[in-house]
Design goal:
- By secondary structure, the chain is an alpha+beta fold.
- It folds into 2 domains: 84 residues, 2-Layer Sandwich (Phosphorylase Kinase, domain 1), CATH 3.30.200.20; 230 residues, Aminoglycoside 3'-phosphotransferase, Chain: A, domain 2 (Alpha-Beta Complex), CATH 3.90.1200.10.
- Helices cover 49% and strands 13% of the residues.
- It contains 12 helices and 9 strands.
- The chain has a 5-stranded antiparallel sheet, covered by helices on one side.
- Helix 10 packs antiparallel against helix 11.
- The chain is globular and about 65 Å long.
- The N and C termini lie far apart (42 Å).
C-alpha cells in the first residue's frame, strides 16, 4: 500500500496512524481478534512489525486498556510496549509479540517438552498478580472500580442459559426444571463471589499468552480487574481450547499453593468451583458466537468444555440433587 492508495481494510484515522509510525509504504494485514469487538492489524514495511488495535469508541487515560497497561508494566508483567495512539479515534499502536500463542505452540508435538516450564512461567505471573497487582492500582483505575462479582457471574450464567440452553440446544426447560437451573446459577454465583479477591487478568488462557524465545508475554489485558483468587488459575488450567494432562494441572496447582502459602485442599476446592463457573460461561460464549455471529468454529471447543463441567459436577456432592437436570440441559448437547 502506498500513500496514494487508501486501504479498504482500515479507517482513514487508522491509516494515518499507520503511515505516521511506519511510513507511506506501510503494508496492512487484518488479523483475527477472537471474540473481541476490536479490530487488529499487523503493520509491516519498517524496521519492525507493529500491531494496530482499533477500539469501537474513543479512549482516554482512564480507559481500561491504558490503566491495566500501566499497572502490569509497573509490576513487571510481560506486556506489549506502547508505541503510539490516537485516543479520539480509539487507536492504539503496540509492539508486535508475534503470532505464536501458547495454544498454537503446544499443538506442535515437538514443543511439548517445554510445556511444564511455560506453565510454571504462567503460574509465576498469577503469583505476581496476587502479590503486587492491587498495590499498583490507583484511585479511579478500572480495576479498582470493577470486579468479577455475584452480579457479573449471574449475568454470565444467564447469557449461557439464553444462548447455550435455549438457542444452541433448542431446549425450553419446564417451570420446575427452570427453577432448579436458576437456583443452581444463583448458588454458584454466590459461592464464587464469596472467594477472596485479587487482581486478575480475567482471560488468562492459552490464546492470550504469547510464546517468544521460550518466554511468555501477555495480550488482551484490557479487562483485568478484581476477581476471585482462583479465577486466573481456572482460566489457565481448565482452558476450553486445550487438553492438559491432569498430572500437569495437579502439579501447577501445587506450585501455586506453595508460592501463595494456601491450604492445599481449600485451594483445590475453590479452584474447582471457579473453573465450573468459568467453563459454563465459556459454553455461553461459544453458543453466542455460533448462533449470533456465525462463528461455528467455536463449537469445536464445546465437547471438551462439557467434559470439564461434568467432571466438576461429579466431584462435588452439593450438585447431586440438581445433577439430573444439569445433565439434561448442559451435558447432553450434541453438535
Amino acid at each position: 500500500m502506498t500513500s496514494g492508495q487508501p486501504s479498504p481494510l482500515i479507517s482513514p484515522p487508522a491509516l494515518a496512524l499507520a503511515r505516521r509510525a511506519v511510513g507511506p509504504h506501510v503494508r496492512v494485514a487484518e488479523i483475527a481478534g477472537d471474540a473481541s469487538t476490536r479490530r487488529f492489524y499487523r503493520l509491516t514495511g519498517g524496521a519492525s512489525t507493529m500491531i494496530l488495535m482499533e477500539h469501537p469508541g474513543p479512549l482516554d487515560e482512564e480507559s481500561s486498556f491504558y490503566s491495566n497497561l500501566r499497572i502490569m508494566s509497573a509490576i513487571g508483567a510481560p506486556v506489549p510496549r506502547l508505541i503510539d495512539r490516537d485516543d479520539a479515534a480509539g487507536l492504539v499502536l503496540v509492539e508486535d509479540l508475534g503470532e505464536v500463542t501458547l495454544q498454537r505452540h503446544l499443538m506442535g508435538k515437538a514443543n511439548r517438552a517445554g510445556t511444564r516450564d511455560l506453565y510454571r512461567q504462567a503460574c509465576d505471573l498469577i503469583v505476581l498478580f496476587h502479590r503486587e497487582g492491587m498495590k499498583a492500582t490507583q484511585e479511579g483505575d478500572f480495576a479498582r472500580r470493577n470486579a468479577l462479582d455475584r452480579e457479573r457471574f449471574l449475568a454470565e450464567l444467564d447469557h449461557f442459559h439464553r444462548y447455550f440452553v435455549e438457542r444452541l440446544g433448542a431446549q425450553q426447560p419446564a417451570a420446575g426444571e427452570e427453577a432448579i437451573l436458576r437456583s443452581f446459577y444463583d448458588d454458584l454465583a454466590g459461592a464464587c463471589d464469596r472467594l477472596p479477591r485479587v487482581y486478575c487478568h480475567r482471560d488468562f488462557q492459552s490464546r492470550n499468552l504469547m510464546v517468544r524465545d521460550g518466554r511468555l508475554a501477555l495480550i488482551d489485558i484490557q479487562d483485568a480487574r478484581q476477581g476471585p483468587y482462583t479465577y486466573d488459575a481456572a482460566s489457565l488450567l481448565r482452558d476450553s481450547s486445550l487438553d492438559l494432562e491432569e498430572e500437569l494441572v495437579d502439579e501447577m496447582l501445587a506450585c501455586l499453593g506453595r508460592e501463595l502459602a494456601l491450604p492445599a485442599e481449600e485451594f483445590r476446592r475453590h479452584f474447582d468451583l471457579m473453573a465450573l463457573q468459568r467453563n459454563i460461561k465459556d459454553l455461553g460464549t461459544f453458543a453466542y458466537q455460533s448462533t449470533e455471529r456465525g462463528r461455528r468454529e467455536y463449537l469445536e471447543y464445546v465437547p471438551r468444555t462439557i467434559r470439564f463441567v461434568r467432571n466438576a459436577l461429579l466431584r462435588d456432592r452439593r450438585y447431586d440433587t440438581p445433577y439430573a437436570v444439569l445433565d439434561r440441559f448442559i451435558l447432553h448437547y450434541r453438535a
